[in-house]
Design a protein that fits this description.
Elements: H1 2-17, E1 30-33, E2 41-56, E3 61-63, E4 66-67, E5 70-86, E6 91-102, E7 125-138, E8 141-150, E9 188-197, E10 200-208, E11 227-228, E12 236-244, E13 267-285, E14 288-308, E15 313-325, E16 331-334, E17 342-343, E18 358-362, E19 364-374, E20 385-397, E21 404-416, E22 420-434, E23 441-457
Antiparallel strand pairs: 1-2, 2-5, 2-23, 3-4, 3-17, 5-6, 6-7, 7-8, 8-9, 9-10, 10-12, 11-13, 12-13, 13-14, 14-15, 15-19, 16-18, 19-20, 20-21, 21-22, 22-23
Organism: Dyadobacter linearis
Signal peptide: 1-17
Keywords: Signal
Amino acid sequence: MKKVLSLILLSSSVAWAQVKPSDDNTRSDLRYNLNESGSHYVKATFTNQAWFRFNENNPGTTVTGDPKTNTFDIGLRRTRMQLFGQITDRIFFYTQFGMNNFNKVSAFPAYNTTGTPSNRKVAAFFHDALGEYEVQRKGTNFIRFGGGLTIMNGLSRFSQPSIGSIMTLDVPVFAQATVDQTDQFSRKLAVYSRGQIGKINYRVAVADPFPLETSGSVPPAINQNAAFSQRKNHKQFDALLVYNIFDTEDNTTPGYMTGTYLGKRKVFNIEAGIITQKNATWRREATDTLYSNMNLWSVAAYLDMPLNTQTGSAVSAYMGYFGTDYGKGYLRYNGIMNPATGTAQPIAGVGGTHGNAYPMFGTGSVIYSQAGYKFKDGLLGSQGTLMPYASLQYADYERLRDGMSVYNVGVNWLIKGHTGKMSLNYENRPVYRNSSNANELEANGRRGAFTLQYQISI
């Protein structure tokens, strides 16, 4: 009996482990092969990003009613599980389940200042659930069609990021243009096509945005500035073209684009993308309700390649320009995993200005850049290597008298690539107040935050 049990355990272990390096690193996959060649398979992954953060709060910040000049919080920025696989030569499925931005105040509604009970145990949900069919393949060229709940969209690389391979502490969230407004944490119900034709990678999609009223927050009252509309909703159209000058990128999972390959590939891309939606926003002018189309576009270049293939040193860089037209006067504050719940010094015309929030989204334009350098493998012996980085977001939004700049500097300790890494990051952001023009904000100092992240990704 013991021998039989041992045999069962051994065969089960072999079936699921089947250690097979992925295309982009040397970690072992949690993978079950459905055929002898391994071309048909089911794979599971897990990623957890724990944050330990000290934040200088915006003026007037309160935490559950108590004034707080600064805060220290512990949270889970992302906790995700994926299950996906190639069932036949043509059929692929992908699902992702998890939660985001979970800290001690994450279940405290932004509009609740009376202490009404809420539920902290409702954070996890399906991020993605889709099926895909490959209609053609020849070498590295392919054309696929799919549909379901997906992050596939058109604006840019960082509008659909592979979060386990981020180089900086976090992605530039402004590029996830409608996040938690008319989507589900950047995911929408959509039909799409994606493919690789020679040097060109394409993705096009038609999405059915969620009503703003289902976002979990009280929608803002219609006023002189554009906000997502509650009437006359239309479908959203997305398209992204990427020209691969050197290597093509990993195209396994729909939508998701790698942050950095850590020198495992030689990648240099030029990209252009667009998102458009009719009557996406509305505003009030005198007694009239006016609707505006949302037109977002970007052009960018991405570089990620080894400098020395013998030592493993590498460089990664990105530069992009974004045109962001949400409608006249659109401006939205957002704070990543905000450690606060309210403010005693509200700013007229905008909401959610507490904690670590800043005007992240707006009608105007944005320039975003990032760069990092990976030192040689084994710089720290058996404890891995280091990769310092820096990023800058500069925005020129209609309602900001002064341009907005947010910069981050930090270093990754790559204990085992992206599988196990720690990141220490400093972010510096602007603070605003109402100006003499009641509908315009002016700069009023800056605040910073130190964050230590520990990532486990299998």
